[in-house]
Specification:
Order of helices and strands: HHHH
CATH topology: Single alpha-helices involved in coiled-coils or other helix-helix interfaces
Low-confidence stretches: none
Structural class: mainly alpha
Mean pLDDT: 93
CATH class: Mainly Alpha
Shape: elongated
Oligomer: single chain
Number of domains: 1
Radius of gyration: 27 Å
Number of strands: 0
Helix content: 55-70%
Strand content: under 5%
Distance between the termini: 60 Å
Largest sheet: none
Amino acid sequence: MTATARLDLKLDAADKDIVSRAATLLGTTMAGFVRVAAKEKALTLLDSESRVTLSQRDFADFTAALNNAFTPNAALKGALTAAAKVKRA
């Protein structure tokens, strides 16, 4: 891997010792350990924040709304008529 960006990190002695011991257990450097751990955590967070999770009841309501026939209300009908008039002009 060719490093193209730098991140400086300060740790207190106890945290550094924990990271150092964990890196040693995995047979890697502290920098390598922190790089992999930070990336894994970031990807997990980004993945979870990009999803919408629904309860079973909410999912059933959502799919029912998608599957049932849609009837536009008066406001939508009026907006569609106005938009059609603007388009013709």
